[in-house]
Amino acid sequence: MSELTSSGFQPDLARLREMLLRFALLQLRDRTEAEDAVQEAMLASMARISEFRGQAQFSTWVFAILKNKIVDTFRLRARNLSSHTYDQEIPADAFDALFDEHDHWKKNERPSAWGDPEATLAQTQFWTVFELCLTNLPPATARVFMMREFLDVSVDDVCVELAITKTNCGVILHRAKMALRLCLQNRWFDEKGA
């Protein structure tokens, strides 16, 4: 993507749209809503182009706008959803087999060494596997995880928007993290021989 030039912007809008759409699809899991959010973000960025100061890349600025559109979509969904029980998606005892009677890891279930985390995070392939693991989470669980951990929505706001309790939110976040850990363990770290 081109940076600001003396003659104005020359961003690769097709590439930017593709990146935005991929991100929005991961968050929203609905193509129509994702396309709407991306279109709104791109239109908003073009309408407010005079506000762009060039302190970050143009794509970063548009992604920030998109994140707000995604949060707006979550809020709209929450208003339209009847309050269903999010805690039914992953059973409460789903991970009990990993721990002993004292809630310690069973010897054969302990997470293996993950190597150098900084080097791993730098690898594009890791994020592809992470995205696959995230996509395989139940939709409501992934929604809570992404709102809290990626979009940085406060727990209180997540609870209000999704009509769940703080306890329920904590349980969902724990289950999401455990499911992601197990998926990454099986699909990335064990494959790498760590």
Describe the structure.
- This protein is mostly helical.
- It folds into two domains: 13-80, Rna Polymerase Sigma Factor, Chain: A (Orthogonal Bundle), CATH 1.10.1740; 86-189, Winged helix-like DNA-binding domain superfamily/Winged helix DNA-binding domain (Arc Repressor Mutant, subunit A, Orthogonal Bundle), CATH 1.10.10.
- The chain contains eight helices and no strands.
- It has helices at residues 13-28, 31-47, 58-80, 117-121, 124-135, 139-150, 155-162, 166-189.
- α1 (13-28) packs parallel to α3 (58-80).
- The longest helix is centred in the C-terminal third of the chain and has 24 residues, at 166-189.
- 21% of the residues are buried.
- The model is unreliable at 1-7 (pLDDT under 50).
- Belongs to the sigma-70 factor family. ECF subfamily.
- One of its GO terms (molecular function) is DNA binding.
- Keywords: DNA-binding, Sigma factor, Transcription, Transcription regulation.
